[in-house]
Write a structure and sequence with these properties.
Elements: E1 21-27, E2 30-35, E3 41-44, E4 47-50, E5 61-64, E6 70-74, H1 78-84, H2 94-103, E7 111-115, H3 121-130, E8 135-140, H4 143-155, E9 162-166, H5 169-172, E10 182-187, H6 196-202, E11 203-213, H7 216-226, E12 230-236, E13 243-251, H8 265-274, E14 282-290, E15 300-306
Parallel strand pairs: 7-8, 7-10, 8-9, 10-11
Antiparallel strand pairs: 1-2, 1-6, 3-4, 5-6, 11-15, 12-15, 13-14
InterPro entries: SAM-dependent_MTases_sf, TRM61_C, tRNA_MeTrfase_Gcd14
GO molecular function: tRNA (adenine(58)-N1)-methyltransferase activity
Region (Disordered): 254-281
Length: 310
Amino acid sequence: MLPVDPNKKLSFTRSICDGDLVIVYERHDNMKALKVCKDSVLQNRFGVFKHSDWIGKPFGTKVFSNKGGFIYLLAPTPELWTLVLSHRTQILYIADISLVIMYLEIVPGCLVLESGTGSGSLTTSLARAIAPTGHVYTFDFHEQRAASAREDFEKTGLSSLVTVGVRDIQGQGFPDELSGFADSVFLDLPQPWLAIPSAGKTLKPDGVLCSFSPCIEQVQRACDTLRSNFTDIRIFEVLLRTYEVREGKRDCGQADGGNLGSLPRKRRQRSSEGNSAHDNLSYPSVMARPCSEAKGHTGYLTFARLKCLS
């Protein structure tokens, strides 16, 4: 996930090595994570790709198969890992993650607490944000889920930045030894109000908490609990609208500022009667429009800052 040189500096400039994890990019909606093994091959609709041909090449390389087809070998960044990881639970996606990182004020060297771990989508981004000197302590009450997450962090090279614990934070709270040390806390729990008092004890003065909840009733109850020890309470719902961009045809006779695409038939006929043959020509033009499938509500993000005692 985060290739590290001997000086503990993050870098994607080094070459791909045997045993590395890479993201195989076939097209924007078809990617997969693979471990490089010099004796293995990848077979898909584009042909056969030998892993041995990948070793020594930099991340981002375009490699060809025996049939002339190609794929890209990409570095497993948190953004790409979020798109290819195994879903053990519902995950957070890039739009929500980016807001969480920003409003939790996470920078290199921070100590961050997370509950629950789930599939580890957010955890990978938290780890990159606090690297190379910070640390993420993440907890999940489900032992097998925590073990799977721990294996994923080993694969992606995050094990030195992330500690996975098995603990029911709603019932037991965060470990006492972390009290007063956390810069930020993230909660993804069905009853976050049960964990908020413990989260307040672990936070440094002026530390920030975020709670992710899919239902507004959960948000309301969490806010009731937050008001006793927290201030600056804010709630967000991130609705992402993506666009697709493609090349289309536009008539030369169409006025500037009109819609992209060909003129209606009657307008084309009238245009051809009064103009030269050149006006009937069309030329490529870039067309942009909202994607037909828009992602709606994922959840509410509630942020609050721990009050400083005077």
